[in-house]
Design brief:
Blueprint: E1 2-6, H1 14-24, H2 33-37, E2 43-50, E3 61-71, E4 74-82, H3 91-102, E5 107-113, H4 121-136, E6 140-148, E7 151-158, H5 164-175
Length: about 180
């Protein structure tokens, strides 16, 4: 069973989160982590740990993190990663479940890189695995594709679909007070 804690500038596990963030996402898909920690945008930035039970429980094991933004009835999972050696063990599904439990009435959206734009077989395989993971966890196709920082993305949704207009309006609202911010 997983437990999670808010990630802040003072979190003792921030170095682990930062390391995973920087290794899991290519430079063109990241924003500076200080922006993820800034409170100009209300985000849920959570670190997940395996909960150990009993007297002889060791220190909880860091498993991954999520970073999401909710506005209205849309929750966008912006960043989400599981520690590489713990992948394919159900931790990712548990993290998604925790987000869904916190937002039972939200349409949850995630974006994935478009498979057709893969540059090689290895990248295509990675993108297909990511899409299949989300599909196994109840996410389905949506009509929304967009380009951000040079990468082509497709939205997947759970709990209801999101239109292109709703998605763009979501980001316009989230970024309205951030000078120079670019939205999809």
């Amino acid at each position: 069973m997983l437990q999670f804690f808010d990630v802040t500038k003072k979190s003792p596990y921030l170095p682990q989160v930062r390391e995973l963030y920087e290794s899991a996402f290519p430079a063109n898909e990241r924003i500076p982590i200080k922006q993820l920690l800034d409170d100009k945008i209300k985000r849920e930035f959570w670190a997940f740990f395996e909960k150990n039970e009993g007297e002889n429980a060791v220190t909880p094991k860091f498993c991954g993190f999520s970073n999401s933004i909710t506005y209205g009835d849309i929750t966008n999972i912006v960043y989400f990663a599981v520690v590489p050696e713990l992948r394919s063990r159900g931790y990712g599904s548990q993290i998604l479940q925790a987000i869904r439990e916190k937002h039972p009435d939200s349409r949850i959206v995630v974006d994935i890189e478009v498979e057709e734009d893969s540059k090689n077989a290895e990248e295509l395989e990675r993108r297909n695995r990511r899409r299949e993971f989300y599909q196994r966890n109840g996410f389905g196709a949506s009509p929304v594709d967009y380009v951000w920082q040079g990468e082509h993305y497709r939205l997947l949704t759970a709990g209801g679909t999101v239109t292109d207009k709703e998605f763009r309006d979501f980001w316009k609202e989230i970024l309205k007070d951030i000078p120079g911010a670019k939205y999809p």
